[in-house]
Design a protein that fits this description.
66 residues; two-stranded parallel ribbon; 3 helices; 61% helix
Length: 66
């Protein structure tokens, strides 16, 4: 049986707001981003927002919470 990930509507905006506020990406946020990236209906502006978050992680501006 194939399990599908689905992002809750509005969750991406909540993740982005949380990351902007705390400068931390939680494991739940990471799963949310993964679900969003696997969603075929992801809009281009949402994909760019995810790219900005990941870029901030690579630069060290956002830390990963374990």
């Amino acid at each position: 049986m194939l399990n599908q990930l689905q992002l809750i509507p509005g969750a991406l905006a909540d993740i982005m707001a949380s990351v902007a506020d705390t400068q931390t990406l939680t494991i739940g946020d990471r799963y949310g981003l993964m679900a969003a990236l696997l969603d075929d209906s992801l809009q281009e502006d949402e994909r760019r927002a995810i790219d900005r978050i990941l870029h901030a992680v690579r630069r060290g501006n956002v830390r990963l919470h374990r």
